[in-house]
Design goal:
single chain; alpha/beta; Rossmann fold; 8-stranded mixed sheet; 5-stranded parallel sheet; 14 helices; binds cytidine-5'-triphosphate
Length: 409
């Protein structure tokens, strides 16, 4: 068994992707590609039937590894057992009704069946079949049995099937399957923790149709919420005008303005041991919000907005926190010099009083809405305690590493 399973940052893992004989096998190629691009070592086991739908050279090129099909090849390496033993996770996409039935019965008449039986790794299944097959009592019972044994079932979705019909049975999209695989790989080192994450950017209304806002998409906060939930925490996400969907399994509260956010944070914070303030908060709001649309005819050639300061939610939280609570702030800065950026971070954490401050660079073309991030984390003494770069999910895991409390031996 691989010893790398304890790595909380989602480092390189050994992932076995089982591909079985369904038309959705073509979508397995995207699953494999995403997992390889995330840096994982992907080993594909295809059934004979799968190779009728997608070619072995495609699977080998995309996985960057030989594809295993035959139970009786490589017998001297005891491959029917060794592949399963070395797996950190096994994902079967698509999982046909036939494969699901065989897994439920523990049948090992091919390499994939042997591999699953010989492995203690978590198993993720992405069923794909016609609606009638999915709804058949035999499949329903088989799926229930596999769930009871701890396997994760992703989907299936409802939508267009292979023919002209549509309904339940369509294989989940590759992104959803990859997310389930990463979830299965995550350690449960935040179990028992209650983490509140704010994400997105607040908007201050000027009139019924206009607002002052910022470019925060909410991606980093949503990635933090997803990663914390994957690691076993109970997570509440307060989303301010999110451009991305909140993660499944996370209780989400939607807000618009800074006042809404402040109210939601004040209500939720006491029930959480950690608050991560990823949200980009509008520091000012219009003193007056116009009842009707502001008209040019009434304003002339220029318009002056009268703005008043909003409360600083992070500072207020830090000032009133319980000793057992950890408060994490974010600082988005446009400073290009590294030393000057660090100086800003130190000044900001001193001002805000949080336990940690995560600083990243933002600009016209960096930071917001992008899939990647690059951060430095300072503690309340101003010392650098972490640097992290990569996907917002990777950065989220690195930040969460700071929150793991040592287990008492
Ligand atoms: N923040 C907050 N309430 C505000 C403004 C910011 O809680 N009114 C929080 C943000 O959620 C973030 C941190 O404070 O965690 C820093 O936000 P940032 O916008 O970088 O800092 P500002 O306080 O606006 O400081 P500056 O004006 O120097 O950029």
């Amino acid at each position: 068994m691989s010893s790398s399973r304890t790595d909380p940052t989602g480092g390189a893992r050994t992932i076995v992707v089982g591909v079985t004989g369904g038309i959705a096998a073509y979508k397995a190629v995207s699953v494999i590609r995403s997992l390889v691009l995330l840096g994982h070592d992907v080993s594909v086991i295809a059934t004979e039937a799968a190779l009728r739908f997608v070619g072995k050279p495609t699977l080998e090129a995309i996985s960057r590894n030989p594809v295993n099909v035959d139970l009786y090849e490589g017998v001297s390496e005891v491959r029917h057992v060794s592949i399963g033993q070395s797996a950190d996770v096994i994902v079967i996409a698509p999982a046909t009704a036939n494969t699901i039935a065989k897994l439920a019965a523990g049948i090992a008449d091919d390499l994939l069946g042997n591999t699953v039986l010989a492995s203690t790794a978590p198993v993720v299944l992405a069923p794909a079949m016609h609606t009638e097959m999915w709804g058949n009592a035999a499949t329903v019972a088989n799926v229930a049995r596999l769930r009871e044994r701890g396997m994760t079932i992703v989907g299936p979705g409802v939508g267009q099937l292979t023919g002209s019909d549509s309904g339940a049975g369509r294989m989940s999209e590759p992104d959803e399957i990859v997310a389930a695989v990463l979830l299965a790989l995550a350690p449960r080192d935040l179990e028992g923790r209650r983490i509140l994450v704010t994400a997105g950017g607040t908007r201050e209304a000027l009139d019924p149709v206009r607002f002052l806002g910022n470019r925060s998409s909410g991606r980093q906060g949503v990635a933090l919420a997803a990663a914390a939930a994957a690691r076993g925490a109970t997570v509440t996400l307060i989303g301010a005008n999110l451009e991305v969907a909140p993660p499944p399994g996370v209780q989400t509260v939607e807000v618009v303005s800074t006042a809404d956010l402040a109210e939601a944070v004040n209500e939720q914070a006491p029930g959480h041991d950690t608050v991560i303030m990823t949200a980009a908060v509008a520091d000012y709001r219009p003193r007056f919000v116009a009842e009707g649309k502001i008209k040019k005819e009434d304003q002339g050639e220029s318009l002056t907005l009268d703005l008043v300061r909003n409360p600083d939610i992070l500072s207020d939280l830090a000032a009133s926190k319980r000793p057992d609570q950890i408060i994490v702030g974010f600082g988005a800065e446009t400073e290009s010099d590294d030393e000057a950026l660090l100086a800003l971070a130190r000044a900001k954490i001193a001002r805000k009083g949080s336990d940690y401050l995560v600083v990243n660079r933002v600009g016209w073309t960096s930071g917001f809405s992008l899939p990647d991030n690059d951060v430095v984390v300072v503690d309340s003494a101003g010392d650098i305690v972490k640097t992290a770069a990569g996907s917002k999910s990777t950065v989220a895991h690195r930040i969460l590493d700071l929150l793991v409390r040592p287990t008492s031996q």
